[in-house]
Amino acid sequence: MSYAVAMTGISKRFGAVRALDAVDLNVEPGNIHAVVGENGAGKTTLMRALYGAMQFDSGTIEVEGKPVRFANSKQAIAAGIGMVSQHYGIIGALSCLENLMLGAEGGPIINPGAAAAEATKLATRMGFHFDWFKSAEGLSPAGAQKLEILKLLWRKAKIMILDEPTAMLSPADGEALFASLKQLTDEGATVILVTHRLPEVLDHCSTVTVLRAGKRVAEKAVKDTNARELAQLIVGGAIAEAPQRAASTGGEVLKIENVVVRGRRGEDALKQVSLDVKAGEIVGIAGVDGSGQRELFHAISGILRVRTGSITLEGQDITSESTSRRLRQGLRIIPEDRHEEAVIEDWSLEENSALGLQRLEPFAKGGVINAPARHEAATAIADRFATKHGGLKLPMQSLSGGNQQRFVAARALHLAPKLLLAFQPARGLDLNSTTRVYEGIRQACQQGTAALVVSFDLDELLEYCDRVVAMNGGELLAPPAGKLLDRDTIGRLMVGAE
Amino acid sequence: MSALNPATNPFGNFIKQRWALAALVIAAALVVLGALALSGTPPLQVLSDLVKSSLGGARPLTGTFRELTPLLISGIAVFLALKAGLFNIGVEGQFTVGGLACAMVALKIPGIAGIVAGIVAGMVFGALWALPAGLIKAYKGGHEVITTIMLNNVAMLLTTALVAGPWKAPNDQSPTTTSLEQASFLPNLIGPKNIPGSAGLFEVGELQVSSGLLIGLIVAIALWYWLKRTVAGYELQAVGANPTAARFAGIDHRRVTVKAMVWSGAIGGLAGAVQVLAVEHRFYPQLASGYGFDALGVAMLAGATPLGLIPSGFLFAVLNKGGTSIQVLDQVPKGITYVILGLLIIIAAAVRYRKTAGSNG
Lengths: 498, 361
Known about the structure:
The complex is a heterodimer.
Chain A: E1 5-14, E2 17-27, E3 32-36, H1 43-51, E4 58-63, E5 66-68, H2 73-78, E6 81-84, H3 96-101, H4 112-126, H5 141-154, E7 159-163, H6 171-186, E8 190-195, H7 198-204, E9 207-212, E10 215-221, H8 227-235, E11 252-262, E12 268-278, E13 282-286, H9 293-301, E14 308-313, E15 316-317, H10 323-328, E16 331-334, H11 338-342, H12 349-353, E17 364-365, E18 368-369, H13 371-384, H14 401-414, E19 419-423, H15 431-446, E20 450-454, H16 458-464, E21 467-472, E22 475-477, H17 487-494
Parallel strand pairs in A: 3-8, 3-9, 6-7, 7-8, 13-20, 13-21, 16-19, 19-20
Antiparallel strand pairs in A: 1-2, 1-4, 4-5, 9-10, 11-12, 11-14, 14-15, 17-18, 21-22
Chain B: H1 10-38, H2 43-55, H3 58-83, H4 91-108, H5 111-140, H6 144-164, E1 188-190, E2 200-202, E3 209-210, H7 211-229, H8 231-241, H9 243-248, H10 253-280, H11 291-302, H12 309-330, H13 335-360
Parallel strand pairs in B: 1-2
Antiparallel strand pairs in B: 1-3
């Protein structure tokens, strides 16, 4: 039997960097094949080579036994290969249906009714539900991900490449996604899954290819390996230890009392939420995406207006203060959407290093930018979590997503924050980098920072936080004393089952 | 799209794009020469007349610098708003209102005090004229292109009504204010000492350059410094580049929007005031005569820094001055210079767009 995809000896250089060094990838049809590795190991580059989004220097690709070489993604799509990248390609201004069909309308004249019926059939098969004529703008990350998968099916992709598909999904949505993928592979499709999360590999994949520094270091049947071995293969040595818990906590830094916030549709997105966070502790907020975490963060950041209730930072009522004032009082934010909220892509790393800190010393004094100090700070920020970059004067968009995230996380920790709000601080990061970022947060907390972390990955929170509370339908639910880190209890709170 | 994506094949695309750009420039040159040939005059003669009448000597240069001053200052106004992500199409109106305000003040207050007060009045009224557009954009989301275009019409009609009615010069047929006293003229920076009223601080033969140009250069350099070195400039550009990220960085995008619009309007008003004090010495409704619109092109061609406004404004000035002259010398319509400018802007956009496509690859 021939492989669905056989990539042999693929090499690619970017200037002096060998991004891929004679990499082989053999994917059997009807399977979920995992590709794992650290940030920068070459996973995405390899997938882009397969997808025709990037030309490689040497090597061959066979799809279903036939040698191919795609000059562009269009040819790859025609050959039945589809890819969902980390950054979704959903256009908010179009309806869900238009997004689904974009570029594959099947003719110059569109019959929306028939197309929607077809789309609904496709969605039902996958157990998804879409209001096809609604704008795609309001889609949650999970919804956007689902739509991306339907886009592949719409284009009749038989080989699907998914790059970090669960990075933005709740555990429940993640499980649902894998159930769908299982169904697809049962129907004969082949899935190549790029991921950082080893549990996904072990639970759902049949074969795993490990990349390290542009080389393939192993290909294993999942049943013949385990998490420990994979982690060692990925890192190529010792694994960073998980950080410690808080030894002691200090005074109350953040106090939220009975906060109510109005959501987009006029509903109460936060219902009488109260929470205390003390200096030195990391508090995790677990919950399915869209349970009010976003609104809570925006309320604390000063981006959403609080209708009733109060927010206090180090004893000062900041309920109606501007974001700028809160930042000056020591609030730091690692926003959810790196592209849109955390960086300015066209600006240099150096200019981005001041974003959010621009009014604070040493970045500025008396309203004038201190360029040497900013350069120094940018250097320190880039070094902190080993952001890979080609120079601080280069634009932010020259960095990969993971490296941008390292930079953004390091920036938030740079000036001894009083209160750190981190929304998925390890989004798109590999094991080691995730640990390093949380270590960084822990270090700040040992100096007196209070940290509030949202993640859709409950295991991540349980591993790194001192206590975890759950959000469900705009309510904040704390587990009872003694079960502050109890997975089952929190899991039940997340879905409102307790 | 993927054929233009340099990530797929950087070298091949570099060559391809260079060729594409060269082809674009050659095509543009052919369009210009073809258009000139159609007008019945030898194209090269027209081009040579155009250059001679704008750059060839003290008198042509005097005219070119006179064009440069309003183009540069209005260009700065557009540029500032552009940095905040706003298209201020209303500089024409702000220019007009600022010019009238300045003229009325300078007519009341003689001498240096009147010049200073006139400039301030021009800026204040220019700013007030832009304020509604800024407020509507910031708080109601109404697009500034629409509101500023509307305000242009209001400015034109209102000022015409005023100088045709209550503020009309008594002995004039057409709607205009009385002319300023010579003491209220903005003096020349460079000018021959032997001609009364034209004497400047420096003398370079017959050349005359108004100190209005100096004001423009100072404002351009000040803006360059402000954008590069001050936190306020940083914040304004952040709003222009990514308003959402700016909010998370504690920047009040509404206030920045209003501020950018108001300052843009103030500089537009300054351009009108300088035009009254340095060139026209009175206000009449056609004072701006399209400078506010040309300023859009000046700002577009300037590139990333306000210092780029100086060469870009100069290019527009050369074509404005030369274009007027070739009408007389060669009976070629001035419109040909707009063809040239239009093509230049297309080429500049192609170059810039290519950069963007490259970095996003």
